C-alpha cells in the first residue's frame, strides 16, 4: 500500500492541459485583467504536490514518518479544492469538466491510499530493523520493484567507499548473459564476485523462458540467494553465499569466490566476423555472448567450438579425494533438482581438490526456480547449450545419508518455504513444493534399493559396483541430449582412473 500510495504518479498538469486543449492564458494589460485564475491555481496545486512527492522520495527512509504522509494529504486536498473551483467555473464545458473529474478521482484515490498506510507496517514492509542507513525512499521503492528484500542487502559493508581498488578487478569474466567483477572490500579483504542485478531481462534466453522465468521481473539475484537457502537446507556447502551490494551506483549480487577450476574447458576458435549473422549479433552484446562469442586479449573475436568436461582433471586422485568428490557432486545434484536448476553445464561449477578433500561450488544460479518445472525429470524441449542450458535434469541415482535424513525429517511449508518467502513468487514456491514432494518420494525409492550412501569410498551397489563404476554408466532410458545421469558420469567418468588402474 505504501509503495502504491507514495510512489504512484497522478495525472500530470501537462497531461491535463493536453486533455483541456490549452494551457492557462497569460494575464492582460500588465496583469490588470486576470486570466485563467482557477486554471493557474490548479496547476500550482498539482506542481506543489509533485514537488512534495519528489522531496519525500529523496529523504532518508529512516527520516520519514507520518508527518510526511500528512503533508501529501494536505497537498492533495488543495488539488481537489482547486479542481472543484475550476469545474464550477467551466460547468457548461463538458470536455473540461471530464478532464478535471479525472484529477479529482485520481487525487481522492491517492488520498484514500495514503490514509490507509500504517507507518509501522510500512517500515516492516521495507525490512524493519534491517533498513540500510541513508537509503532514500526512491531507492527503497526501486529495490522493492526489483523484488529485493532489505534483509538480503549489505550496502553499508559492501560499497565503493569500502572498496580495495588495488586488488579488485572490474572485468573478471563474462558468461552467456552477464559480465562480472572481482571485488575486494577493506573490511575482510575477501575476494568476491559482483554481478549487476537487471530490473528486466532484455535478451531472455530459451532456457529461462522454457522454465517459466518472467522476463519483466527475472529476480536473478533472489534465485541465487534461494539456491543457497536450499543448499543450507540439505546441510551442504556447494552453492556460494550471496547478498546484495552497491558498486558504481548499481545494485548487484555479491557472491563468495569459487575456489579451484571449472569442471570443464571451453575450446575457442577464431570467429568469421564477415558473416551477416555475426554483424547482426555484434549490435547486441548479450546475444553475442549467448551465441558463444568472446574477444581475446588481442581484440580478436573468438567463438566457442565446444566444452570439454573434466579435461583439467586427468590425474590420479587418492581414493579419499575421489570419495569426497562423489559426495560433493551428489550434493550439488540434489540442490539442482530441488531448485529446478537449468544451467549446470561444466563451466558453471568449480572443483578444487585439496589433498584428500574436494570442494565443489555451483556458480551462476540464475536459471533456477522456474514456475513451470514441477516434476523431474525436467523436459528441456530442445534447449541447446547456446540457449543457456546444461543440466542433468534427471533424478540422482544415489543420495548421501545426510541429505536423505534431512529430506525425510522435513516439511516443506514448515522448514523450506519460510526461507523462500520474499525471494520467489507464489507460483515459483508452489513449483518448488511440487519438486520437493517428488524428490522426497524418489529418495524413499533409493533407500529401498540400498542407494543411500553412508561412505562414498566403501559403498557398493547390489551388483558390487563402486560409486565410480555405478555413476559412470550411461542411462539408456534418458531421452535427452545428455548420455549420463549424474554430474560425475557426465563430466568426470572418463577422467578419473578406475580402481583397477590405480597404482598399488
Description:
The chain folds into four domains: 2-137; 148-258, Phosphorylase Kinase, domain 1, CATH 3.30.200; 264-309, no CATH class; 311-501, no CATH class. The chain is built from 17 helices and 13 strands. It has helices spanning 2-7, 13-20, 37-57, 66-89, 94-115, 119-125, 137-145, 206-211, 220-233, 276-281, 285-290, 319-339, 401-409, 412-420, 426-448, 467-472, 487-491; strands at residues 169-174, 179-184, 191-196, 242-247, 250-256, 261-262, 264-270, 293-295, 301-309, 349-354, 357-362, 399-400, 452-453. It has a five-stranded antiparallel β-sheet with strand order 1-2-3-5-4. The longest helix has 24 residues, at 66-89. It is elongated, with a radius of gyration of 29 Å. The model is unreliable at 1-8, 380-389, 476-483 and 499-504 (pLDDT under 50).
What is the tally of helical segments?
17
Helix content: 40-55%
pLDDT < 50 stretches: 1-8, 380-389, 476-483, 499-504
Distance between the termini: 71 Å
Using the CA coordinates, give the radius of gyration.
29 Å
Strand content: 5-15%
What is the arithmetic mean of pLDDT? 83
- Counted beta strands: 13
What's the multimeric state? single chain
Count of distinct structural domains: 4
Strand count, sense and barrel status of the largest sheet are:
5 strands, antiparallel
Principal-axis shape equals elongated
Amino acid at each position: 500500500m505504501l509503495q502504491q500510495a507514495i510512489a504512484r504518479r497522478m495525472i500530470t498538469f501537462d497531461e491535463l492541459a493536453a486533455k483541456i486543449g490549452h494551457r492557462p492564458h497569460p494575464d492582460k494589460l500588465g496583469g490588470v485583467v486576470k486570466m485563467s485564475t482557477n486554471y493557474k491555481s490548479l496547476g500550482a496545486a498539482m506542481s506543489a504536490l509533485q514537488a512534495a512527492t519528489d522531496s519525500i522520495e529523496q529523504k532518508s527512509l529512516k527520516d520519514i514518518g507520518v508527518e510526511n504522509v500528512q503533508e501529501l494529504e494536505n497537498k492533495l486536498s488543495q488539488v481537489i479544492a482547486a479542481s472543484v473551483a475550476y469545474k464550477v467555473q467551466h460547468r457548461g464545458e463538458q470536455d473540461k469538466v471530464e478532464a478535471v473529474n479525472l484529477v479529482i478521482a485520481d487525487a481522492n484515490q491517492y488520498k484514500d491510499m495514503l490514509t490507509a498506510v500504517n507507518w509501522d507496517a510500512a517500515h516492516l514492509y521495507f525490512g524493519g530493523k534491517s533498513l540500510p542507513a541513508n537509503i532514500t525512499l526512491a531507492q527503497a521503492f526501486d529495490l522493492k520493484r526489483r523484488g529485493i528484500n532489505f534483509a538480503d542487502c549489505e550496502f553499508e559493508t559492501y560499497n565503493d567507499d569500502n572498496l580495495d581498488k588495488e586488488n579488485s578487478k572490474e572485468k573478471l569474466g563474462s558468461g552467456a548473459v552477464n559480465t562480472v567483477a572481482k571485488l575486494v572490500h577493506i573490511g575482510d579483504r575477501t575476494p568476491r564476485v559482483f554481478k549487476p542485478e537487471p530490473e528486466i531481462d532484455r535478451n531472455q534466453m530459451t532456457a529461462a523462458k522454457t522454465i517459466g522465468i518472467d522476463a519483466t521481473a527475472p529476480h536473478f539475484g533472489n534465485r541465487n540467494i534461494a539456491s543457497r537457502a536450499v543448499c543450507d537446507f540439505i546441510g551442504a556447502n556447494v552453492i556460494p553465499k550471496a547478498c546484495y551490494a552497491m558498486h558504481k551506483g548499481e545494485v548487484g549480487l555479491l557472491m563468495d569466490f569459487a575456489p579451484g577450476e571449472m569442471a570443464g574447458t571451453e575450446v575457442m576458435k577464431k570467429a568469421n566476423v564477415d558473416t551477416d549473422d555475426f554483424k547482426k549479433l555484434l549490435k547486441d552484446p548479450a546475444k553475442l555472448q549467448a551465441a558463444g562469442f568472446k574477444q581475446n586479449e588481442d581484440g580478436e573475436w573468438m567463438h566457442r567450438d565446444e566444452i570439454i568436461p573434466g579435461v583439467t582433471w586427468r590425474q590420479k586422485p587418492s581414493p579419499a579425494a575421489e570419495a569426497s568428490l562423489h559426495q560433493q557432486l551428489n550434493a550439488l545434484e540434489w540442490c539442482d533438482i530441488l531448485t529446478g536448476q537449468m544451467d549446470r553445464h561444466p563451466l558453471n561449477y568449480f572443483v578444487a581438490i585439496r589433498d584428500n578433500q574436494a570442494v565443489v561450488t555451483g556458480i551462476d544460479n540464475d536459471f533456477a526456480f522456474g514456475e513451470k518445472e514441477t516434476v523431474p525429470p525436467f523436459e528441456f524441449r530442445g534447449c541447446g547449450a547456446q540457449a543457456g542450458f546444461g543440466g542433468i535434469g534427471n533424478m540422482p541415482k544415489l543420495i548421501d545419508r545426510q541429505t536423505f535424513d534431512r529430506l525425510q525429517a522435513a516439511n516443506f511449508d514448515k522448514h523450506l518455504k519460510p526461507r523462500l518467502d520474499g525471494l520467489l513468487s507464489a507460483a515459483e514456491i508452489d513449483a518448488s513444493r511440487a519438486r520437493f514432494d517428488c524428490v522426497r518420494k524418489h529418495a524413499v525409492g533409493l533407500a529401498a534399493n540400498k542407494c543411500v550412501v553412508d561412505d562414498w569410498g566403501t559403498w557398493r551397489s547390489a551388483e558390487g559396483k563402486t560409486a565410480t563404476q555405478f555413476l559412470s554408466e550411461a542411462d539408456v532410458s534418458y531421452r535427452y541430449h545428455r548420455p549420463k545421469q549424474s554430474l560425475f558420469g557426465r563430466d568426470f567418468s572418463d577422467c578419473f582412473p578406475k580402481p583397477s588402474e590405480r597404482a598399488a
